[in-house]
Amino acid sequence: MSLEKVIFGFFVLLAATLNFGFFIGDMSDPSLHNVYELFAAVVVSLIATVLKFGDRTQIGAVHLATSLVADLQLIAAALVWAYATQISSGGMDGAEMASVVSLSGGALLANLVSVVLLVIETVSFHRR
Amino acid sequence: MAGSALRAWRRLVRGDDQATRRGSQRAARPRGRVSFARSAETSSTIFLILRRMRAPLIVLIAIFAVSVLGLTLIPGRDEAGQTTRMGFFDAFYFMSYTATTIGYGEIPQPFTGAQRLWVMATIYLTVVGWAYAIGSLLTLLQDRAFRHALGLQRFTRTVARLREPFLLIVGYGQTGQLLGRSLDALGRRFVVLDVSGERVDMLDVDPYHADVPGLAADAGDPRALTVAGLEHPRCEGVLALTDDDEVNLVVAMTAALLRPNLPVIARTASPAIERRMRAFGSPAVVNPFDRFGDHLRLALRSPASYRLMSWLEDGPGARLPDGGRPPAGGRWVVCGYGRFGKMLAADLRAEGLQVVVIDPRADAAPGPEVLVGDASEPAVMARAELGDAVGFVAGTDNDTTNLSLIAAARSLNPALFVASRQNRPTSAPLFAAMKVDRLLVPTETVAREIYAQLSTPLLWRFLRDMPARGDDWAAAMIERLTRHCGHRLGALWKIALTSGDAPALEPYVRAGEATVGDLLRSPDNRDRPIAAVPLLLQRGAENILGPDDDVTLAPGDQILFAGRPWAHRSLLDTMSHHAAGEYVLTGRTVPSGWLWQRVTGRMPRNR
To answer: Of the candidates A39, A47, A56, which has its C-beta nearest B88's C-beta?
Structure first.
């Protein structure tokens, strides 16, 4: 067992689970989506991205690409959230919340691909 | 990075990954050449560096996350005294300017004690985080491996972008530098590969007209040769000039295997290596010791041929060397029986001369003619009986020893003919002051020989075939050259009798009515010759040395001339100007303008 693999798998999986936790629930209901969870998802996703730096294999490259997509989606969600709470006159309403959650839903898809890749990598490692 | 990103994008757009691309490249090469992945070395270093930035970046992200989270969790108080919590937006804003040491103050309201306590901790944490990240980045930029990777990438790009034919010079020592300067003066492009980074750095200092890409790498590694452009379609030749025979052999071998038809010129001092080089293709091998021996034999056998050869090899502007000849009969003493001494002694013996060798090592070659001992000791020198010897060769690989040997030998017999070997360029003034009769400077010999081969191949053919013509022929040629051009060698140039280069002469040459002598008439007054001497006429595979005036010209002939620069211009007039060509060949004066040709009815035949 390699500690590096444990940390790597932990962060990839945690990014996906946090993202899922934030995403689940009625899209337009702000009370069902905790902003702390979004924050945690952004941070863990960033860390997972950095962990994927410098892998020369093909699967490593796809890993990095999915993480970058997830980062992009989550940061966009955070920006929309910041706009809704700080700048928009209407405050956080249903439409704004829906767009935050749908953006994080896109990130969730990317994170799921990441997890699938992780599983593929693990399975093919055992076969070798 | 931008270049690789662009390449990556192109690969993506074209829809083929690296593996299939490499496969298609290999398939496109009909001769089954092996190709090396060019950028493998570069990218691995960059990946390593990315990997090394992982820890600082994660630390930074973690510190930020913890600080922001803490700020949002710790209760604050608003103007009304109500307990309130900072939002993520404000917390991130606050941490951003605090962590980067900008510090706008406490927002949106003055902090409570608990908040200040937390902020105090985070300030120290974030400063450490930033310092760690920026420090790591700067260390990476200074990193040798990283800089080397960047340099290699730039070099690879420069070589790949070369659109002119270029030579690959492997080994940038004295020979490489001498040759580089001459090639640059000729307007030839080249790429340098040397194992020493210092020598490659000298490329920046050397005053070259063209940009010369240089790479510090082991030339014994085929990948380094590939990166330096061995497989580049514009690479027109490889020069293996390192002072290590083994490396030169590897270079010649690699070039022969990867680019079978590429011309290779290799330097070596050992006949064994030369044989091994010739096992791969047909490289031109230059052995300075061998050349010196050949020259000395030529000088012994036919002094005029040697004189003509050294005059022409010295290049434009050289004075006619003195006609002194080494003593053809008598006993020679050779000090130092290494590769040079052995080769020279064999050459001298082949000329029927008696040779005595002095060498400190007993195992060099036992025999009656070998004296074992240190030549600098008077007793050993006395045994060589220099008093009745005619020639003395100081051929050790140490300049100080050679100089003191010459001094000792001259004190015993001032009339000796002295030949020596100069190993380091810094010793040149000392050898010049000693007035040595024949001096071998291996690096210069190699550079001159290769220059003759590359710059004017016709001259090289002339020099190769000339000794066979004999001493009287060479003396006559020297006489002819001095009569036309004086005692200082003028320019050397080549003309080709093609329709492109010599349109004015074409009909006459085609009809077989033009001779070499006609070409040498002046376009101003055809009864006067121009100051040029034809050295060599090449017709297909046939070489005519010093063609006489009555040799008939044929289309496609190439002629090498030596003479004054203005003679070159006159010859160009004759070749390209219709009226001038007509006058020179037939004596008819025709108007050069269209109108007067119509009015007078005198049309040039070659129009």
So the answer is: A39
Instruction: Using an 8 Å CB-CB cutoff, list chain A residues near B50.
Output: 53-54
> Among B564, B584, B563, which Cα is nearest to B574's?
B584
* The token pair that represents B53 in the structure block: 């930035």
Closest CA to B563 of B537, B534, B543, B521: B534
Q: What is the mean pLDDT of residues B302-324?
A: 80
Establish if B44 touches chain A: CB-CB under 8 angstroms.
yes
Chain A residues within 8 A of B43 when measuring between CB atoms = 56
Residue of A nearest to B51 (CA): A54
Distance of residue A107 Cα from the nearest chain B Cα, in angstroms:
19
Distance in angstroms (rounded) separating the CA atoms of residues B121 and B128 = 11
Instruction: Identify which of B187, B270, B284, B202 has the alpha carbon closest to the alpha carbon of residue B240.
Output: B284
Is A51 in Cβ contact with B58 (below 8 Å)?
A: yes
* Helix%, strand%, coil% for chain A, nearest 5: 80, 0, 20
The predicted-structure confidence for B257-285, as pLDDT tens digits, reads as follows 888 888 899 998 888 888 888 888 788 88
Rounded CA separation B176/B451 (Å): 11
Q: Which residue of A has its CA nearest to B17?
A: A58
Sequence-separated (6 or more) residues with CB below 8 Å from residue A119 = none
B9 close to A (CB below 8 A): no
Domains by residue range for chain B, with CATH: 54-142 (1.10.287.70), 165-286 (3.40.50.720), 303-457 (3.40.50.720), 490-600 (3.30.70.1450)
Query: Is the reported ipTM for this assembly greater than 0.85?
Result: no
From residue A26, alpha-carbon distances to A29, A33, B385 in Å are 6, 9, 113
**Number of A:B CB contacts under 8 A?**
48
- Residue B446, CA atoms < 13 Å, CB-side half-sphere: 28
Note the pLDDT tens digit of each residue in B123-179. Answer: 889 988 988 999 998 888 888 877 888 888 888 888 988 898 999 999 998 888 888
| Spatial contact of B238 and B230, defined as CB atoms under 8 Å apart | yes
Given a cut of 70, is residue B16 above it in pLDDT?
Answer: no
Both tokens of B118, joined, read: 């937390």
Say yes or no: B68 contacts chain A, CB-CB below 8 A.
yes
Asked if B603 contacts B579 with a C-beta cutoff of 8 angstroms, the reply is no
Put simply, whether B596 touches A (Cβ < 8 Å) is: no
Is A77:A107 a contact under the CB 8 Å cutoff? Answer: yes
| Interchain pair A86, B87: CB under 8 A | yes
Any A CB within 8 A of B499 CB: no
Supply the pLDDT for residue B549.
82
Question: How crowded is residue B49: how many other Cβ atoms within 10 Å of its Cβ?
Answer: 18
Q: pLDDT tens-digit profile of A51-85?
A: 888 777 888 889 999 999 999 999 999 999 989 98
Alpha carbon distance B427, B138 (integer Å): 45
For residue B23, pLDDT over 90 is answered with no
Cβ <8 Å between B50 and A53: yes
pLDDT given at position B22: 40
| pTM of the predicted structure, to 2 decimals | 0.65
Sole residue written with tokens 């600098």: B376
Residues 6+ apart with CB under 8 A from A82: B88, B89
Instruction: State residue B299's pLDDT score.
Output: 84
Whole-number average pLDDT of chain B: 81
Q: Which residue has the higher pLDDT, B15 or B430?
A: B430
* Helix-then-strand count for chain A, H and E: 4, 0
How far apart CA B264 and CA B285 sit, in angstroms, is: 8
Q: What is the DSSP letter of B553?
A: P
Q: Does B87 touch chain A (CB under 8 A)?
A: yes
Residue B266 parent element (H or E): strand B264-267
